[in-house]
């Protein structure tokens, strides 16, 4: 049986990208990424759901021909207009001049704006349906800001299959198989947290609104735009997205983020990590903010309840690599974290105040008084750091 066959009516026609090194020109792709696209065939009509990135247009068209030969797909349903899914629209229209582009009003305005395509479109509203024959009925649900304003989801009623767009997606190209039951999925879970925290992390509230719209809808198959098609592990995947979008950590571990030019602040970060381990914390991730990629730091920050941030004062403000992390945390409105701040300086302490204002702006919970020190930490200050980390550990282990 072809691995691209998801059911009698649904085939996978997406592609793997193992060439792009940074998604959205920012986020590293050590295991690649897939742009998932699906072909749904009903008794009367055929629809493509979701598209692929521009340079994979021909590959997608080959996949379509593989399944329906010279028949022409009738509809292209666009759940999300970010160009990783819409880039090939123009080429699809060239290959299939009569294909009708289906989207909501915002989608269709973007199709025109990005690709200059304005004819043969079908505008749908929240709750509208489209029939591909008596055996296939599709229903559209608007889910704005998961992850752009035009985003919607398509539900195949008879097969209880949800085409969810970026929601429930993850980094990591597919390795042969498409459906979770046909593969070892373990590699995708860390990449799901990293994808969520980098890409969708700011829109937790909207993910929650979208989830609530499907509270009473049975979903047997979850077809996202990135990563495996979920069937066996749907509840686990939805659970992860639910927790992450509530800004609830996945465990009681600690992320230690530090910046340091000459090692003095680093020693405090190392000391905090040691004290956390000695107090019994098992999940500890330590990042040098000048070296670690932002997406891996964010992923750990979304995962762990504890957060230690140590940074020097630099030109009367916060050391820039750490400021970058703090801004990313503030942009995403990360909440529900127990935080310990450590600031260093040589002549005028500014790091602690700067870090504090970020933390206060997002309402995270501080576990202890910030620790401020000058030049090299004294034995007393190192002990103060141990004690504060110990108190943080005790709170996390409660
Ligand atoms: C380019 C540069 C600018 C700095 N600006 C300040 C500053 O404005 N105020 C201050 O108190 N210390 C400043 N420092 C000193 C650092 O905060 C200092 O290195 C501190 O002791 C942290 O040490 P670490 O890099 O060994 O972790 C600066 C250091 C450098 C290299
Ligand atoms: Fe997107
Ligand atoms: Fe996407």
Give a written overview of the molecule.
Helix 5 packs across helix 9, helix 8 packs across helix 12 and helix 10 runs parallel beside helix 11. The protein is built from 12 helices and 22 strands. Strands 16, 17, 18, 19, 20, 21 and 22 form a 7-stranded mixed β-sheet that branches. A 6-stranded mixed β-sheet has the order 1-6-7-8-9-10. It folds into 2 domains: 236 residues, Ribonuclease Z/Hydroxyacylglutathione hydrolase-like (Metallo-beta-lactamase, Chain A); 146 residues, Flavodoxin domain (Rossmann fold). The longest helix has 19 residues. With 398 residues, the protein is of the alpha/beta class. Helix content is 35%, strand content 24%. The protein binds flavin mononucleotide and fe (ii) ion (FE2) (2 copies).
Q: Count the helices. How many?
A: 12
Please report the total strand number as a whole number: 22
Task: Give me the secondary-structure category.
Answer: alpha/beta
Task: Quote the CATH topology of the largest domain.
Answer: Metallo-beta-lactamase, Chain A
Query: Whole-number radius of gyration?
Result: 24 Å
SS strand fraction:
15-25%
Query: What CATH architecture label of the largest domain applies?
Result: 4-Layer Sandwich
Low-confidence stretches: none
Sum up the overall morphology in one term.
elongated
Bound molecules: flavin mononucleotide, fe (ii) ion
Largest sheet: 7 strands, mixed
CATH class of the largest domain: Alpha Beta
Query: Helix proportion of residues, in percent?
Result: 25-40%
How many domains? The number is 2
Distance between the termini: 51 Å
The CATH homologous superfamily of the largest domain corresponds to Ribonuclease Z/Hydroxyacylglutathione hydrolase-like
Mean pLDDT: 97
